[in-house]
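job 3f2a | input accepted
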Amino acid sequence: IISLVKSGPDYDPAITETLTPCKALQSIFTTNEIDGTLVRADDKKFLIAGNVNITTDMLLKDGDKKYSIVRIMEVRPGDTLILSKVQARL
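job 3f2a | predicted structure (90 res):
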């Protein structure tokens, strides 16, 4: 997971990337889930352990690829985050 931290003036901020390692399982969306609008054919699904808080402002890095986070679905019984299902796009 890459967190982007902005510093400096709003018109020309310096952006620093902070890398947080995490365990993730990459999967694909089924043809039933792909609608061409919300879920595109080239979107990836990542299942990420609940020890990392993820936001849509972050990026997912897999090797040399950086994915933007489109949507996060959490598996959370009560206050405990077990798993995040993340829709990501190149």
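job 3f2a | The mean pLDDT is 90.
job 3f2a | closed
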